[in-house]
Write a structure and sequence with these properties.
With 182 residues, the chain is mostly beta strands. It is 13% helix and 35% strand.
């Protein structure tokens, strides 16, 4: 029965995967420690502007594999998370071929100012950017721009499609906020 459960879990995580939000970069849309279910198929089909995605960054995780408990190693195996780098949750602002300009707190994609109703009114998009997103890449930012390490910064930069883990389907926890995430 135990082996069958593990095999079933491994099949399921080919299509969906749970993940946990770590930090406040997506606040108020997502909060620290929210549990999400992500659609892993979207990593093959691509995503649209405005989608909330999970991607594997190039930033190292502080915990090494040797420091992980046996339970953590088993969960990593079941969830197919053998990465030694951090997964980040961000919103896709621009896709390959888009021209993005950030200046004086205003974000424009292909000459049109974004209407970002998901951000709080006191939030400001810092930085000055004028670039074209390379094909096969995404420009992603957190909804809490003042507390988000995202594509505006060299540590993250453009996100290659092959580093995409998936798009957020639903918030599973806390139960008071269960449902679709926009």
């Amino acid at each position: 029965m135990f082996v069958m459960a593990i095999v079933l879990a491994m099949i399921i995580v080919q299509f969906i995967r749970p993940t946990r939000v770590d930090g406040l970069s997506m606040y108020p849309t997502l909060d620290n420690n929210d549990y999400l279910i992500i659609n892993r198929i979207s990593r093959y089909t691509g995503v649209e502007r405005g989608s909330i995605v999970v991607f594997d960054s190039t930033m190292p995780i502080n915990t090494t594999s040797a420091e992980k408990s046996s339970v953590s190693k088993i969960m990593d195996f079941i969830l197919q998370d053998d990465s030694s780098t951090k997964d980040l949750v961000k919103r896709v602002i621009a896709v390959g071929g888009d021209h993005i300009v950030i200046k004086d707190g205003v974000v424009k994609v292909n000459g049109e100012t974004l209407k970002e109703s998901y951000m709080s009114s006191d939030n400001v998009t810092e930085g000055t950017i004028d670039t074209v997103v390379p094909e096969g890449h995404y420009f992603c930012m957190g909804d809490n721009r003042m507390r988000s390490l995202d594509s505006r910064y060299q540590e993250v930069g453009f996100v290659p499609q092959e580093r995409l883990v998936g798009t957020v389907l639903i918030r599973l926890l806390p139960f008071s906020n269960i449902g679709k995430v926009n």
